[in-house]
């Protein structure tokens, strides 16, 4: 029997998380993508704490015009600005089982342009 999309993504996610882990010096940039919104957060896995988070529901991003992919780019830029202000320049990217394509790729590229290194 074939896997559902959710089961397939969960298997990929487990495979990625065996390798990728965030620390205080180099947190994990976690991406969650729903049908309408996109969320990104920096996580310190050693302490189990979220250091900062940005989503497409934030006022300045949701007020902007554009499609979901363009808003994902705005989320990436906003995350990079907040991270640099908090003194975080290096991160580990966690695509959370999603394909590195479309909104996830746009967010990652925008975060790199904003100054994050991964």
Automatic annotation (TrEMBL):
Question: InterPro entries from the entry?
Answer: Ribosomal_L18, Ribosomal_uL18_bac-type, Ribosomal_uL18_bac/plant/anim
Q: Does the keyword Ribonucleoprotein apply?
A: yes
Q: Which domain of life is it from?
A: Bacteria
One Pfam family hit: Ribosomal_L18p
Q: Please tell me one Gene Ontology term that the record gives under cellular component.
A: cytosolic large ribosomal subunit
Q: Could you tell me the keywords of this UniProt record?
A: Ribonucleoprotein, Ribosomal protein, RNA-binding, rRNA-binding
Provide the family line: Belongs to the universal ribosomal protein uL18 family.
Give the quaternary structure.
Answer: Part of the 50S ribosomal subunit; part of the 5S rRNA/L5/L18/L25 subcomplex. Contacts the 5S and 23S rRNAs.
Kindly provide the name given to this protein in its UniProt entry. Large ribosomal subunit protein uL18
| Native source species | Gaoshiqia sediminis
């Amino acid at each position: 029997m074939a896997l559902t999309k959710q089961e397939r993504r969960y298997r990929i996610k487990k495979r990625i998380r065996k390798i990728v882990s965030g620390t205080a010096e180099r947190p994990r940039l976690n991406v969650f993508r729903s049908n309408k919104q996109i969320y990104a957060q920096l996580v310190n896995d050693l302490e189990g704490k979220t250091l900062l988070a940005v989503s497409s529901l934030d006022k300045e991003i949701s007020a902007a015009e554009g499609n979901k992919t363009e808003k994902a780019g705005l989320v990436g830029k906003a995350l990079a600005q907040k991270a640099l202000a908090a003194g975080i320049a290096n991160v580990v990217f966690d695509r959370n089982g999603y394909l590195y394509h479309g909104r996830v790729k746009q967010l990652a590229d925008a975060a790199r342009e904003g100054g994050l290194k991964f």
